[in-house]
Amino acid sequence: MEVTAHDILLIGGGGAGLRAAIAIAEADPRLNLAVVSKVYPMRSHTVSAEGGAAAVIAANDTIDEHAYDTISGSDWLADQDAVEIFVNNVTHEMLRLEHWGCPWSREPDGRIAVRPFGGMKKERTWFAADKTGFHMLHSLFQTSLKYGEIKRYDETFATRLLVDDGVVGGVVAIELATGKIRAIMAKAVILCTGGCGRVFPFTTNANICTGDGMALAFRAGAPLKDMEMVQYHPTGLPQTGILITEATRGEGGWLVNKDGYRYLQDYDLGKPTPTPVFRSMELGPRDRLSQAFVKEMEKGRTLKGPYGDYVHLDLRHLGEKKIDEKLPMVRELCRNYANIDPVHQMIPVRPVVHYMMGGISTDSSGATPLKGLYAAGEAACVSMNGANRLGSNSLGELLVFGARAGTSAAQYASGARRPSDRLLAQAADEERRIEREYLNRNSGRERIAKLREEMQHAMESACGIYRTRQTLEEGAAKLAELKQRFGGITLDDHSRTFNTQLMAALELSGMLEVAESMVHAALWREESRGAHQRTDFPKRDDQKFLAHSIAHRNAEGPPRIESLPVTITRWPPGERVYGR
Ligand SMILES: Cc1cc2nc3c(=O)[nH]c(=O)nc-3n(C[C@H](O)[C@H](O)[C@H](O)COP(=O)(O)OP(=O)(O)OC[C@H]3O[C@@H](n4cnc5c(N)ncnc54)[C@H](O)[C@@H]3O)c2cc1C
């Protein structure tokens, strides 16, 4: 087996991974650093972010207001020290990004343009038209190229973390083009592997968002935090799940039911006004809007289509000029994927799984409880999003906490010892396991696609917008069954060259673990908070559950769930008030 060694290894070449890589190269240019990514970095999911990234810049805005919106948006489950670090650093990060080439949209007088976003009280969402993620990732990628010392392993899939005596020392990874299995050793590893929307059947997330890093960490003994907190975005295209950005509502779009009625006024989110009002109606937070859709559906006031119930997003009153200037990609997506023109027609939309608030548990420097292991971006839970992330806080999060994880890993690696040689035996074991359980296996009968589909539908029924003990227990039983059946899978492709079936199998095995942690954390949390709505426990319960869920993996059986107190600094838990 080929063995290579570096000081620091980044798993993931998306926004968080590249921001961390730049921070490390800046912190200590002598550190030997590598980025492993299962796709070419510019294909990471960050590229598809549309609406924008939040940071205080407008004269009438304050950092405390950004903190408060984030904390109340999180239904008080965010750690307030993490939120304070975020709001205090994000504007600087956004300006740096501009210096690296990110073309932020501007007002005619040259100031940075900002738009309103859901759950935010002020205009603070920076954007590059509606292709923000593309421009951000491009700026990070081209800046990373300045540093010759960043070695890249593109299209290389990490399958296991190497851990000796509680210290992480590298990964095993498959080079997809050749099937070559490598041991890549490092003193520190940072997981920036993104989200896991693909655990569900209907999601805005790219095919690659399968939570691999969460599963890698979990299997290696690092716990996962707040995995029950799954965000549904209220506006996806019904057939494909393609996201119609919140920027449409930031620019003044309306949500209407089958009678053309702006139904959000019935859900304690304020009343219609001639111009949009912050934190009101369509600018309410995502959890409340997605829940309102379900209630509207129960009242029979949604439209019925071949891909389920939907409502309409109406942009027609914004006019062609504004749509072309501010929302060109929305027009393009609607034309190409729904055959409608939002200048003249309403857009059919329904809630869609979008973002994972939970993830690998880290402190505010990105460190996990496992020595040498760090995490940042959507794969991590630091936690600043709590029970509901505000739109446009994630892109800023991956800059602020990507950089912090990079800096702290650099500090750690500078003084850490070379990984133990004992890890090579672990790496050889992993190679044999992949050959035995996947590549050389002929006997199984279970199809990967079928198991994946069953998992996704089980998750939607068990752990969707509304949950109960019964749905969750059924989901847990189904996942246990699927994990067992996974032992009997078959692969038709035994070749080593771009074996995408092997990759799908590895992804599915990780997703089953991630899904289990979600269902069991959701069973544990007997209250309703943010995105986690238990109809059998409809109230928020700060006495018992002002706490994070921490899922630990058990070798046998379901994960063990423990609780960890939430850090409160300046904002005691209060009522979440919108529309007033
Ligand atoms: C359609 C869409 C629109 C969005 N719009 C916005 C927005 O406007 N504003 C906002 O704030 N947020 C938005 N978000 C959320 C935000 O974009 C993401 O949370 C964020 O970009 C995630 O970045 P990341 O670096 O953590 O992960 P990603 O960009 O997903 O990168 C993950 C990386 O990990 C690598 N990887 C994964 N598994 C492995 C493995 N096993 N081995 C090797 N490499 C691996 C991948 O190759 C990839 O490079 C949006 C999300 C979506 C899906």
Verbal overview:
With 580 residues, this protein is an alpha/beta fold. Among the domains are: 2-196 and 210-222 and 355-424, FAD/NAD(P)-binding domain; 234-352, Succinate dehydrogenase/fumarate reductase flavoprotein, catalytic domain (Flavocytochrome C3, Chain A, domain 1, Alpha-Beta Complex). 35% of the residues lie in helices and 19% in strands. It has 15 helices and 22 strands. Strands 1, 2, 6, 7, 8, 9 and 17 form a seven-stranded mixed beta sheet that branches. A five-stranded mixed beta sheet has the order 18-16-10-21-22. Strand 13 (303-305) and strand 14 form a beta hairpin. The chain starts with a strand and ends in a 15-residue tail after the last strand. The structure holds flavin-adenine dinucleotide.
Radius of gyration: 23 Å
Compute the number of helices. 15
Provide the CATH architecture of the domain at 2-196 and 210-222 and 355-424.
3-Layer(bba) Sandwich
Low-pLDDT sequence parts: none
- CATH level-4 homologous superfamily of the domain at 2-196 and 210-222 and 355-424: FAD/NAD(P)-binding domain
The total strand number stands at 22
Q: What proportion of the residues form beta strands (DSSP E)?
A: 15-25%
Mean pLDDT: 96
> How far apart are the termini?
63 Å
Which small molecules are bound? flavin-adenine dinucleotide
CATH topology name of the domain at 2-196 and 210-222 and 355-424, in short, is FAD/NAD(P)-binding domain
Backbone shape? globular
How many strands, which pairing sense, and closed or not: the largest β-sheet?
A: 7 strands, mixed
Helicity range of the residues? 25-40%
Oligomer: single chain
Any idea of the CATH class of the domain at 2-196 and 210-222 and 355-424?
Alpha Beta
Look at the helices and sheets and give the structural class: alpha/beta
